[in-house]
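[INFO] parsing input record for Dihydrolipoyl dehydrogenase
[DEBUG] input buffer:
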Amino acid sequence: MADKFDVIVIGAGPGGYVAAIRAAQLGLKTACVEKWVNKEGKTVHGGTCLNVGCIPSKALLETSHKFVEARDHYNEIGIEVGEPTPNVAKMHEFKEQVIAKNVGGISALFKANGVTALEGSGKVLSSKQVEVTGHDGEKATYEADNIVIASGSVPVEIPPTPLTEGLIVNSTGALEFEEVPKRLGVIGAGVIGLELGSVWNRLGSEVTMLEAMDTFLPMVDKDIAKETQKLLKKQGLDIRLGTRVTGSEIKDNEVVVKYADAEGEKEITFDKLIVCVGRRPYTEALLGEDAGVNLDERGFIFVDDQCRTSVPGVYAIGDCVRGQMLAHKASEEGMMVADIIAGHKAEMNYDAIPCVIYTSPEVAWVGMTEQDAKAAGIEVKTGSFPFSANGRALANNAAEGSAKVIADAETDRILGMHIVSQHAGELIAQGVIAMEFGSSAEDIALTCYAHPSTSEAIHEAALAVDGHAIHMANRKKRK
Ligand SMILES: Cc1cc2nc3c(=O)[nH]c(=O)nc-3n(C[C@H](O)[C@H](O)[C@H](O)COP(=O)(O)OP(=O)(O)OC[C@H]3O[C@@H](n4cnc5c(N)ncnc54)[C@H](O)[C@@H]3O)c2cc1C
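[DEBUG] output buffer:
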């Protein structure tokens, strides 16, 4: 038997590495097992998020956005740069540098905090033992008073479009196209599909998105979703709702996709196809036969509100458990679990988790939509404000979009905030903090905002809840 630890974390994604660092900070002897190896065969930390998710996608979104700015918008503000051309190889180089810096940062943090990094695949055995199979096949067994499973998720594949090297790819493959595909298909117009579709659309692909649902972004407030759909359409994304993909065929190095919509059976040909239909929990080879950790009916590790599994002392967090598949949700659960293990009282507020789609403009939201609230029988009042009436947004030459605040009609408590705008992903933190502190719309309305700032649109949306926005035709007379 090898070493004994207070805590062994399995998986070093944003759930696992944060749990491990927090546990070590709280004085617990902590190890973190990770099996991910990069192209050079080196174990890397950071999981999906840092290696093939949040970070590389944002690097490509930023570079492709800058390209569009230079091509389409610099001229409007008096900068003449000639005809810019995207250098895809260089963009990938930049992306890889960004990944390397982030990944290296986690290893450094492990060292600085005294987390023991174990390399290989971890398996939960009975009696809180973890077997680690190294990359050379050597096995070692460790004991732990507590185990935190943070094994993450993988992309869902669908039978009509089996992955086909270089032609039909998942999100990971879509981050690596060496050239800009002329005709690009994306199955799924959710968060990841919209981001990846945007990257390649900006760089020159004709992008067609096939989405089975009839509603665009149903989790976003209807007004904001509608505005987003219009803005993305204007950029050239052909988003076809209510389309069910039924099959595909590779013909002469092209992908022929069959789908059905309200008009009947159709076919469309692409040079590349991205399958972005969601992710599923990853639990392969993770649980020994007598580990006793239960899964739910959808394959997620079953946990309670505080991420306890069916085995005392064994916790699970992040994408491998219920809830939104988001890096920051995984990290928050990681901190909560480490705190609980260290004997502190800790809980998560699952009602105040922000979501962001990093399109341009960005879409960001927290809490309920107006429609959710009404469906739950809550009477609401709402306030909206367009960025076209915000001085800073106009000066930024980025005045598209609007912000909407949803408040309880009786108590004025903020129930949700939904935004489509440049940097909405930054602005939404105001909604999260407001909800976390149980603020009313009036609390925001009475707060002094810096001028000129795009944040003032949030101030105005909060003022608009009572019909008193300043830079908009007022609906009500102030008493
Ligand atoms: C293209 C894309 C873009 C995204 N963009 C965003 C975004 O902008 N914002 C956001 O919040 N989320 C985003 N996500 C989602 C985000 O990446 C995940 O929600 C997040 O990574 C989940 O963290 P996790 O720690 O639960 O799992 P993961 O990040 O998946 O990490 C799990 C780790 O566990 C390891 N592991 C699994 N099993 C074992 C085992 N048995 N032994 C040892 N190690 C094991 C894996 O190798 C992996 O490193 C994106 C995802 C994708 C694919």
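[INFO] The pocket of flavin-adenine dinucleotide is lined by residues 10-16, 33-36, 47-49, 52-54, 57, 121-122, 150-153, 171, 192, 282, 286, 318-319, 325-328, 330, 358 (CB under 6 Å).
[INFO] shutting down worker
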